[in-house]
């Protein structure tokens, strides 16, 4: 009986130890304009894509919350995007919002119409928290289709750390393609 318990314990530990991090070796989603509910960018030569598991009592939009317009909770003609990634047990977050700043009703560079916030996996207080849209930043809306409720675009954000250190990060090669009011988390 004792050896059977050890065998069961070994099998259980083996199964739980084999969990792979789905963000490891991630690739950027293609630059589409079809409402595929995708986003990705590179930071320090690593691809960042959102990943957060659903929980019974948690936020059903934990991984992706991409709202456009007043019907989705964003400001009229505005965006309110929030993305979360859990990687190796650590969380990082990207928020892109035009609330209180501007509106987005046409294609083109809308960097002056949004605020950007990025919380790194190693944030602590103001360390690892980045904001702003420094020179070189862009948010290019490539499609906004009110009838089919699709918003797509590309971005590159140059962000400054909030602690006054002057540290800068660059979110490169960013792309997104969402249906208005997209909401998801992983199973």
Properties at a glance:
187 residues; mainly beta; twelve-stranded antiparallel β-sheet; 1 helix
What's this entry about, in short?
This protein is mainly beta and 187 residues long.
How would you sum up this structure, described in words?
The chain is mostly beta strands. Helix content is 9%, strand content 44%. The protein contains one helix and twelve strands; from the N terminus they run H-E-E-E-E-E-E-E-E-E-E-E-E. The two termini are 36 Å apart. Mean pLDDT is 86; it is low at 4-18.
How are the elements arranged and paired?
Elements: H1 2-17, E1 38-43, E2 46-48, E3 64-68, E4 79-87, E5 90-97, E6 108-109, E7 115-124, E8 127-131, E9 138-145, E10 150-161, E11 168-179, E12 182-184
Antiparallel strand pairs: 1-2, 1-11, 3-4, 3-12, 4-5, 5-7, 6-9, 7-8, 8-10, 9-10, 10-11
- Helix count from the secondary structure assignment: 1
SS-based class: mainly beta
Percent range for β-strand residues: 35-45%
Helix content: under 10%
Radius of gyration: 19 Å
Q: Give the strand tally.
A: 12
SSE topology string:
HEEEEEEEEEEEE
Extract low-pLDDT stretches.
4-18
What best-fitting shape do the alpha-carbon axes yield? Answer: globular
Distance between the termini: 36 Å
| Largest sheet properties | 12 strands, antiparallel
- Return the average pLDDT rounded to an integer: 86
């Amino acid at each position: 009986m004792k050896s059977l318990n050890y065998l069961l314990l070994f099998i259980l530990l083996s199964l739980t130890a084999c969990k792979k991090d789905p963000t490891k070796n991630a690739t950027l989603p293609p630059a589409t304009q079809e409402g595929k509910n995708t986003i990705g960018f590179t930071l320090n030569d690593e691809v960042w894509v959102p990943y957060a598991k659903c929980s019974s009592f948690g936020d059903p939009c934990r991984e992706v919350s991409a709202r456009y317009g007043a019907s989705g909770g964003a400001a009229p003609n505005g965006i309110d995007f929030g993305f979360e990634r859990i990687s190796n047990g650590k969380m990082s977050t990207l928020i892109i919002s035009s609330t209180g700043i501007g509106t987005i009703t046409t294609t083109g560079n809308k960097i002056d119409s949004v605020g950007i916030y990025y919380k790194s996996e190693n944030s602590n207080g103001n360390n690892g928290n980045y904001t702003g849209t420094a020179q070189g930043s862009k948010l290019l809306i490539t499609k906004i289709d009110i009838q089919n409720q699709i918003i797509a675009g590309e971005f590159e954000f140059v962000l400054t750390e909030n602690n006054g250190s002057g540290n800068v990060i660059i979110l490169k090669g960013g792309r997104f393609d969402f249906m208005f009011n997209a909401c998801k988390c992983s199973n």
